[in-house]
Each structure stands twice: as structure tokens, then as C-alpha cells.
Task: inverse folding
């Protein structure tokens, strides 16, 4: 299931900017990247609440996959038919509403049933990485759809197949009780913010997600500027190190504190964005490709650790909502701000002749450096004896 679920965005997300540019919609790139996270601000919380209080998480995940597949197919069909761009934007937003809770739901299902989640979950989650890689390679070398809506059609078909497979997932009944309208809307998850460490964690995660948005929006564009005509396939190199990260992160979490692992991820991210900045200055594509490869390790060590951390630190009846809150931050709030900030920054820094990329990536690296300082100084943890802290 993780393989198919990772495959879906792997088809179209890395190619989206180049697809829009090929259809004469370069001016719509920022808006297209703003609307989906805007729609994802609410649906992950509501989906998590439904899984905690009302419906089996596996069934909820299956039906969200079906509805998401239909909306995604319709979005790229509208783009392919040459309809007004607002049709594509609106339908893509609808897809995000349906699929917004999906990652949180699949994580909840996995961590509920897997023994020894610290070791087992990263290995299962590895399937999504392999799916993303496979999709990128198929997009570039089989479908030749780096600039074509065909990538979106392939993604919608994969999501539909994933919905069918989801009915074979283990039954995961709700464990909580909805006692108020806040519980039904998933707003109980915000009680986690009363704990200092949780508050620091979610704030840093939201800010960290801002520069990460540039990876999907503009890393493929810089590849193309530097002469790479198979950017979607090249972007899958990030998943190679993500695979290595998945194999290592379970053992690392058992040996080191959560704070240590997350700081490693933030520190490596500063280096990763610095490499792309140097590529922009030197016009040496190898540095940007190296940064893309390092991205996979950074992503894994931060977000997989974060998911396991939340599963172990919250009440079982609140796990779905906690994962939903994380999804809201990483798929909604962070990318929403990231689309606006990175879009403005790209237009402000990058010139028509391809200059300015060094400033663009260097500023984003500075944002992550600030995240590192905040987390290092304000996050306390439970102490070294507790491996979850």
C-alpha cells in the first residue's frame, strides 16, 4: 500500500512546474502550489478525528483514495483540454481535500499493527520511497511525460488501484470517543500544543516545511536551467538516499534521543540547500544533484522520526488526530507559507538569464539554520533514558 501511495505523487509532483510552463501557465505556478496546502489545512484533522472516533481507519483511507483519484484525473483532464486554469486549480484543491488525511491514516494503521514500530515502520514506509522512485523513472523514460498531463493520469490510475488494495489492510477501529464538537472536528489535537516540547516541535516543523516546498517547486526548474532534460527522473535520486535513510533510521532512533536525530536532519538540510546555492553560483549541476540526493536523507531522518515520536508520546485515542495535525503542518500550513514565500523569493532573486539562484537557495538555507537554533535551544525532551525523547 505504501508503494502505491508513494507512487501517486511521484508521477506528477516533481513534473508539475515544468508541465505548467509547457502549457504557458508559468504565472500560475505559485497559485497552483498555494491552493492544495490551503485545502489541506482542515481535512487531515477531520480525517484523523473520524479515524479516532467514528470509522475504521483502513476503510476511511480506502474511500479517500477513490475520491482523490477521481478529482486528480479530472484536474489533469481539464488541463489537457485547455480549459481555464481555474478548473485545474479547483480540482487539484478538491483532490487535496479528499487525500489530505491519507498519509496520517496510513501511518496510524501501520503503527497500530506493527510490532516494534521504531524498527518496523521505517522499513514499511520504505515502500512509498520506492514507489516515488518508480513513478519518476516511468514518467521520464516510459511515458516521456516530464511536461505532459499524462503524468497526472498515471497518478490518478495508481491512486484508484491503491484504494482497491486498501480494503485488504488490517482492520483498525476507532479507539477514542467524541465528546464534543471540537473532538468531531479534530481540534482536540491542538491540546498537544500546551506541552512545551510539542509546541516547539510543531512550530519548527512548520517553519522547516517552508523551504522544503522549494524542492518540489524549483529544484526541477534549476535542473532544466543547468541543462538536464530528464529532471523528473533526476529528482528520484533523492529517493536513493531516502532508501538508505529508511534502513538506518530505526536503529538510529533506538540509540539516540529524538532531539539528536532531528537536529542531525536540520543540520544536514542546511548543507543540502547550501549545495544548491553553490550550484546556482558556479553553474555546476553536480552540486545541485548532490543536494537533491542529500534531501532524501534529511527528509527521512526528520519526518519518519517525527511520526514515530508522536505515536509514542500521545494517548492512543488521540493518535489519529496527532498524525492529522502533523499532516496539516507538513502538507498544509508549511507548504502554504512555502509556496508564497518561495514564489516571491524566486521572482525577486532569479533573473531572466538564469542568474540569482545562489541567493534563492542561500536564503532558504538560512531559514533552516534558524530552525536548528530554535530547536536546539528550546526543545528539552524527557531525558536520555527514554529513547522516545
Result:
Amino acid at each position: 500500500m505504501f508503494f502505491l501511495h508513494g507512487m501517486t505523487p511521484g508521477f506528477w509532483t516533481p513534473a508539475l512546474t515544468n508541465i505548467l510552463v509547457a502549457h504557458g501557465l508559468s504565472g500560475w505556478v505559485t497559485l497552483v502550489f498555494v491552493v492544495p496546502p490551503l485545502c489541506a489545512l482542515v481535512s487531515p484533522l477531520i480525517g484523523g478525528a473520524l479515524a479516532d472516533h467514528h470509522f475504521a481507519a483502513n476503510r476511511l483511507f480506502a474511500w479517500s483514495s477513490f475520491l482523490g483519484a477521481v478529482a486528480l484525473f479530472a484536474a489533469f483532464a481539464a488541463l489537457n483540454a485547455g480549459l481555464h486554469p481555474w478548473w485545474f486549480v479547483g480540482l487539484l484543491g478538491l483532490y487535496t481535500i479528499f487525500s489530505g488525511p491519507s498519509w496520517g491514516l496510513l501511518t496510524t494503521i501501520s503503527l497500530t499493527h506493527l510490532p516494534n514500530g521504531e524498527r518496523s515502520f521505517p522499513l514499511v514506509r520504505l515502500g512509498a520511497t520506492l514507489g516515488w522512485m518508480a513513478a519518476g523513472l516511468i514518467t521520464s523514460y516510459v511515458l516521456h511525460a516530464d511536461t505532459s498531463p499524462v503524468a497526472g493520469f498515471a497518478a490518478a490510475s495508481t491512486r484508484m488501484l491503491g484504494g482497491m488494495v486498501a480494503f485488504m489492510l488490517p482492520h483498525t477501529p476507532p479507539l477514542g470517543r467524541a465528546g464534543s464538537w471540537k473532538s468531531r472536528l479534530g481540534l482536540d489535537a491542538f491540546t498537544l500544543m500546551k506541552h512545551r516540547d510539542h509546541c516547539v516541535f510543531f512550530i519548527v516543523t512548520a517553519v522547516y516545511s517552508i523551504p522544503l516546498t522549494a524542492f518540489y517547486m524549483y529544484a526541477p526548474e534549476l535542473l532544466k536551467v543547468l541543462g538536464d532534460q530528464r529532471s523528473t527522473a533526476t529528482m528520484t535520486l533523492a529517493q536513493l538516499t531516502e532508501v538508505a535513510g529508511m534502513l538506518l533510521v530505526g536503529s538510529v532512533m533506538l540509540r539516540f534521543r529524538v532531539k539528536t536525530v532531528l537536529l542531525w536532519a536540520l543540520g544536514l538540510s542546511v548543507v543540502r540547500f547550501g549545495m544548491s546555492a553553490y550550484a546556482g553560483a558556479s553553474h555546476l549541476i553536480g552540486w545541485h544533484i548532490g543536494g537533491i540526493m542529500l534531501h532524501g536523507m534529511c527528509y527521512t531522518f526528520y519526518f519518519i522520526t517525527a511520526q514515530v515520536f508522536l505515536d509514542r508520546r500521545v494517548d492512543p485515542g488521540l493518535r489519529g488526530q496527532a498524525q492529522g495535525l502533523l499532516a496539516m503542518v507538513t502538507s498544509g500550513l508549511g507548504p502554504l507559507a512555502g509556496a508564497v514565500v518561495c514564489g516571491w523569493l524566486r521572482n525577486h532573486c532569479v533573473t531572466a538569464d538564469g542568474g540569482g539562484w545562489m541567493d534563492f537557495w542561500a536564503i532558504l538555507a538560512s531559514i533552516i539554520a534558524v530552525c536548528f537554533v530554535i530547536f536546539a535551544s528550546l526543545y528539552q525532551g524527557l531525558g536520555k533514558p527514554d529513547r522516545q525523547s
About this structure: Confidence is low (pLDDT under 50) at residues 181-186, 384-388. The CA atoms of residues 81 and 226 lie 31 Å apart. The two ends are 29 Å apart (CA to CA). The chain has 18 helices and no strands.
